[in-house]
Amino acid sequence: MARRGKSLVFLDTSEVWAFEAADRLTSVHTPHGTFDLDLSLSAIEASLGRALTRVHRNWLVNAAHIKELERDGTETTIFVGAGIGPGQPGVRVPIARERAASVREMLLTTATGLRRG
Predict the structure, then answer these.
(1) Which residues pair with 76 in a beta bridge?
(2) How confident is the model at residue 111 (pLDDT cuts 50, 70, 90)?
(3) Which residues pair with 70 in a beta bridge?
(4) For residue 12, how far is the Cα from the chain centroid?
(5) Helix (H, G, I), strand (E, B) or coil at 45
(6) How far apart are CA 44 and CA 61, in angstroms?
(7) Residue 113 has pLDDT above 90, yes or no
(8) How many CB atoms lie within 10 A of CB 90?
(9) Rounded to whole angstroms, how far apart are CA atoms 31 and 81?
(10) Spatial separation of the C-alpha atoms in residues 16 and 42, rounded to whole Å
């Protein structure tokens, strides 16, 4: 459950793309928009556990919705959302340097079509 103004919004956890913590606020990103939560990322992680992956101290993502991994120099980001390509709804999420290798390995574990070396 999340908030939009004075309304309560009921979300299906399978539709959640990511949770973001910023400035003492926690937001949930979904295909229906971004909403506010009254829980910390730690509480969300404890509650939903296996369904989410911690990729940064300020981000938890639903790995089922990761569409793209991008490395640019020392920066690694993922695109989490509805589809691939310009104009697709979603959110670009930074990956912490210390988590980049494990996130990449997690994504490649079940991937086909890419030579691993």
Answers:
(1) 71, 95
(2) confident
(3) 77
(4) 15
(5) helix
(6) 11
(7) no
(8) 20
(9) 7
(10) 16
Average per-residue pLDDT in the chain?
91
Which H or E element spans position 101? helix 97-109
Residue 29 to residue 65: CA distance in whole angstroms: 11
Residue in the structure block whose two tokens are 């940064």? 56
Phi-psi domain of 106 (left: phi exceeds 0; alpha: psi -120 through 50; beta: other): alpha
* pLDDT-derived band at 115, boundaries 50, 70, 90: low
What is the C-alpha separation between 53 and 33, in angstroms, rounded? Answer: 20
Q: pTM for this structure? A: 0.89
How far CA 53 is from CA of 3, 42, 97, in Å, comes to: 23, 12, 15
Q: Dihedral, CA atoms, 62, 25, 37, 39, nearest 10 degrees? A: 80
Of 76, 64, 84, 83, nearest in space to 102 by CA: 76
